[in-house]
Amino acid sequence: MSAKILALDTATENCSVALLVNDHVYVRREVAPRDHTKKILPMVDEVLKEAGLALNELDALAFGRGPGSFTGVRIGIGIAQGLAFGAELPMIGVSTLEAMAKGSYRSMGATHVACAIDARMSEVYWGRFMRQEDGAWCTIDEESVISPTTLAEHSQTDKFSWVKAGTGWDAYTDALGDIKYDVIQGCVIYPDAEDIALLASLEFEKGNTVAVEEASPVYLRDKVAWKKLPGRE
Description:
Blueprint: E1 5-9, E2 14-21, E3 24-31, H1 36-51, E4 60-66, H2 70-87, E5 91-95, H3 96-108, E6 112-118, E7 124-131, E8 137-146, H4 148-154, E9 161-165, H5 168-171, H6 173-176, E10 182-184, H7 193-205
Parallel strand pairs: 1-4, 4-5, 6-9, 9-10
Antiparallel strand pairs: 1-2, 2-3, 6-7, 7-8
């Protein structure tokens, strides 16, 4: 019997919750950039009720660990830790970039995915992933925060066609258009809890869980994007 895993993600504009039970996924999702704190817990209640389960009957709680919005990532991990602590569940952090790669495979069968989330300040959160036979994803380009121009300058041609995923492609069309390897249009804009749950199930099978107090975000950048005010440096 597969693990029962609750997953949530608020790292980007998309707010989503998924509950994986016996290979069936109960999902709630909504693009709600400013309402994550209002939406996420009702979504959790809804999927649990739909599945007929209580939180303490689950095996693990997964969360989108970032990268993404600083505020969104903090909200997600804080709520996830609170739920996991109360139900005494182990936790599994999943990369939001890898989740978009998984979403691209789920949606269109893509096995080579180039993920770019708009990180503001003329940068993207970047990662390239290749699907393995066991369903896991191999990291081709390590996750980083980088300017699209620099990324394009250091890119090299290869034999694959890479499916685009994430908000960064539309935000920096011109600069990312100079990338040297072949890229094709994708359909995934945001990471989603459904894919986080599916990836977390693979990690759970390997025993890769952490205690609540050890769950941590991945920001990739230690400064928050902000606009300078008149008279401020």
